[in-house]
Amino acid sequence: VPLNSLLLPLRSLPTATKTLFSLFQGCNPLAETGRSKLQNQRAVLNQQILKAVRMRAGAENLLRATTNNKVREQVLLELSFVNSDLQILKEELEGLNISVEVYQNAGETFSIPLVPLGLKETKEVDFTLPLKDFILEHYSEDSSEYEDEIADLMDLRQACRTPSRDEAGIEMLMSYFLQLGYVENRFFPPTRHMGVLFTWYDSFTGVPVCQQNLLLEKASILFNIGALYTQIGTRCNRQTQAGLENAVEAFQKAAGVLSYLKETFTHTPSYDMSPAMLNVLVKMMLAQAQECVFEQIGLSGIRNEFFTLVKMTQEVAKVGEVYMLVNTAMNQEPVKENIPYSWSKLAQIKSDHYKALAHYFTATILCDHELQPGDDEDQQEKALSQLYDHMPEGLMALAVLKDKVRRKQLGKAHLRQAIVCHEEALRVCGLCKKLRNIEVLQEVLTAAHKRSLLKYAQQETEDDFLSLIQAPDILAKTEHKIETIAPQFSKVKVKDFFHKLGPLTVFSAKQRWTAPRTIRIPQGAGELGFHLKGGSPAQIYCLDPLCPAASMGLKEGDYIVSVGGVDCKWLGVNEVLEKLRSVGEQPLQIEVISCQDTAASLHSKSATYSVGMQKTYSLICLAMDEDKIDQTKKTPLKLPFLSWGTKNRQKAASTLCLPSAVAGSSQTKKKLLPFTLLNTESSLY
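Above: the chain sequence. Below: its structure as tokens.
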């Protein structure tokens, strides 16, 4: 539902800007839809988790500080209550993450649910004062002229908190991500922070991460782009060919965005964006895409024909294989502690379910299709042998095809294996409370189990006690390779909100400029005494030191930003020359700026507020590196919430490694401590 009634009225913007801005509207957060209710519940849980984490951190600090036994006992009791409360809140958050039925297509009746990612929540950010101050200080311009642009940026960010679940929502998030690139270059210098605090909540733990680093904002927006693609994929109608194609593409794009996030933003201070977690999420999205491919192949029905069943067997075995890999990855450290338990169990259930279907199809091939005189023996032998890595001992593919008894025995062995896998899937589903409440999942598993039992009952049973054949594993193979689709940012056209400041290659936060100086060239001065070069803006060169302009303060290398009161930042050399000639014999007034030396800029302090968050993937890597450097040093004490330090240019690989002074050591011998922020250009991006 468009949030027309709640959006701030558009200011006096150009028509083109109004049209562009009108596209970027989020959904109404007050709408009583299933998805908005879940997001609202997630926001409430995040606040409760924040409160509990703060209480736990305070109690731990008191426990370390006190020596009174009575106080320690009381604090330990309080800690046990707080930890219990945190565990309950974490289970509630997991319940939101497994509320998959809310995101499924309403028209679906008999499809195993797919898992979407929930959007990361954030707090509001006010850019007004920091950006206005920077415009006045750095660019020496009237900051009041940029109030509309700053408000547009804040409106776009607010809309990105509730994007619509379609391509328009994806485009809006991508537009904000690209806009952040302009904002970063315009207003966030590498030598200091702007005082803008970004707060984002972990999607799985609910723990907030607060930084003054814009790269946290960019990484979180990327995560939400991937999450929105997963929600679009689960919403597709999987009962139609077009719906399944859209679902496959959406999950491939989700995997591509998450993979891009993993490769581009390293060592992010949030569990849900750690490389290990993103690796698991990418595998899960590709597995769901593979599942949709199998559904797409069998949508029109599966013919009970030899070669068709062979193809379907290998396709469904591939689905079971990828889900087995997902389940294995979910049970590895450090992901195991934070991945929702129900997700891991659902991956295990799907692995067993699709493995059972592969055995069922193989049994159908062997039990229902006897070799007829007109059949191609060589082709059937080749197809059957391709199903296995190796045949059971004493059996050959052609001999099995020709011998009715052996066919039946091997077919029944596959049916027994299918029944075992179905029963394991039902058992695991029954053990997980969250999955037990998903009715359609129970119905699909039960129906598949009954079908295998019925098929087995139709076979002759008097020789069962003589059959010792074990069903061999089936080789997975697919004709539809699933790969990630990288995000296509170039297809989203974005105009820099702060275009008026001038070309970004010149007017950026990295370069410092003098305030504009007015150069007045008197009437009848004759030749100007200088040449122009470069693009936009035009630059002074070959300046005659004896010309009137030089005597008025013009310098070699100055940039012309105004001629006769007309802004010239975006004008090229020819256009500026045209304006200079148009003045004629009248007095000429130009405004110029000079580039200042930025090499001696001072290092500034930086802070990361992590609210007592546990060790992240990045911190584990840092701890391992420290052990390699010096294993004799003692483990550093647990840090307080706020850690300060100076910039270290030699450690640009992580946002979590700021040097902090250690007692008794010199300035050059600093020890890396967790939960500190490295202020570098390449720390995250």
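Residues 1-23, 598-685 have pLDDT under 50 and may be disordered.
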